[in-house]
Design goal:
heterodimer, A: 379 residues, alpha/beta, seven-stranded parallel sheet, six-stranded mixed sheet, 13 strands, 45% helix, B: 330 residues, two-stranded antiparallel ribbon, globular
Chain lengths: 379, 330
Amino acid sequence: MEESTMRRRIVGAIASIALVVAACGGAASPAPSSPASPSIDLNAKTVGPNGEPSTPVDQIPDLTADEVAQVQGAKYTAALLWAGAGTWYNALTAGAEEEFARLGIEIVARAEANFDPARQQTDVETAMARRPSIILTLPVDPTAAATAFRPAVDAGVKLVFVDNGIDGYTAGKEYVAIVTGDHFEMGKAAAKLMSDAIGGKGKIGYIFHDAVYYVTNNRDRYFKAAIEQLYPDIQIVAEQGFTEEGKTQEIAAAMLTQHPDLNGIYVAWSAAAQGVIAALREAGRKDVKVVAYDLDAVNDLDMARCGNMYGVALDQPYLEGKIMARIAAQALLGKSVPPFITVPVQTETRETIAQVWKENVNADPPQEILDALASPCPS
Amino acid sequence: MTAGDRDAPLGFVESARRRVAAGRIENLIVYLGFLVIFAFFAVVLRDRGFLTPDNLANIGRQTAMVSIMAVGMTFALSAGEIDLSIGSIVALSAMVAAILLRDGHFSLAIAAALGVGLLTGFVNGLLTTKVRIPSFLVTLGMMSILVGLARITTNLEPVPITNQAYVFWFGSGDLGPIPILLVWTAVFVFAGHVLLRFTPFGRHLLATGGNRTAARYSGIDTDRIKIAALMISATCAAVAGMLFAGRLHGARYTLGETELMTVIAATVIGGTSLFGGRGSVIGALVGSLLMGVLNNGLLLLGLTVSEQLVARGAIIIVAVALSLREARTS
């Protein structure tokens, strides 16, 4: 008797929660996303966090033989304090290591903050115990990093940033410079890839990074703006954000359920595209093309096999790491360095895989990719 | 009275068996909750694709790995232990399989990936029972060790899988109209259910988890039971890792890192006690399906990530609360 009353209450409780959820869902569909994109001026030049003009990376001079000898004699040391880990960071590290080795600079500390600003603060404190002359870093959070890196600034360490700046810091004072991919141009390049992939017209799904993160937010926003402003025959019919890259499979599957007429899917980065491709494979949809960013062996294999992965836009982490190391040395010699240095955007499609691997990460693609490239796509 | 002396401990095992039988009713609430949530989405999303066969197949595929891990977790929890290392076992077993497949070793890849699970579970079990470190801490440490190893294997680089037989049998294939992932799920759920419900091992496991001292006095080797439970849990996770790799046609060290909480929630919603002595494999399956339907439905509703998190969290709390209440009243 009492138990059946309880069960009824239980069912009632579940039902009412479900109703609340549904009410929210109704209002939120389609999902809100990045700010309205027409406000984005696609022709505007990319500038630094304080409006600094960008300097192309090829205008950064190499050190002279004398300078190299001078740096080598000074026994400088460096710390690499990255935000995350993976292929991109490996290439960044490789570039920095090679340049530091050439300059006789010893790397005395390495850390990776797993995108946690608090952990990065600990990393800085720990690295400072080794008294490095240089810190190369990707600040996780531009606000929190202002405090986190203060001990390094006070100790006169030469700070060089990749991708992100730090709020309230000025180039030439607290830090040397920012070296970065051009994320606006990467977004636009991804839009161009999407247009190429689906023949200039059709319906696409847009899977964006639903968190505040400078790099992904800019790429996502510029992709969306470029599609809306430059490719009027392409419609974004489905939008969904994600925070965990393992969830993109479910998202893509849901998109295909509701929009079986999709021609393409954009996703915020390459490792996250793996789930999208799995969803397309399971749905038997060879015709839907995927565009993302960054090198990734698994997705490049799909690309090489003429699967769903059409192309990625990329920056050049190996080159960025190298330049970061180089300008840090220049700063130690008291030379002036431009505050905001950009590397040009690259794109990778099946035709350019081998070349892009060489340029981008200074390595050959894995053998299975080369094997797949050897046989032509079925037309 | 020698007979009386023997009867007392046997009576304890008998009562555990009866509790198992009663478990069928204990789990009523999770089935009910599943049906309510399913029916709700079926109505609200009737014109948004929820009930299409493709979508239902998607839910089945998406939940397969969690279901299999939840079967394993049912054994660990029922034995009065917990296994926090399952997410990292997924990553390491997937990496090991992918690397060996790259070098052309099909059978070795499968054996080694399973070996990751068996060995991890064995070490977890030994440290828990012989060194008497709580399994919470043992498996927490193990999680860190395995994540580190998975990262070291290829220096963080993902490894593609090109072996067609592997990706067919471990993730991407279909047997007729049935996705292979559903077959794997069915096999594990069936085996797990039989093992827990209908074998002496299952009874001893529940007795051990319910009251270790009493179980030991009734002649059960509780250490062996606990080691076996942790090996089952770890091996299920290793299989899930192999399936992740097969489904995604490649492995990366981040695989499985977010699955642990989903697995624990699914298992507990399914009527398994966090404190041992009570477990249901079928319940764990339904708990996993409930989580899968929830994820799917909330996505199809068009909720943002933040809204999904709030809704999912609220429903999980309600489901677990109801499940626990049900257990206390029956």
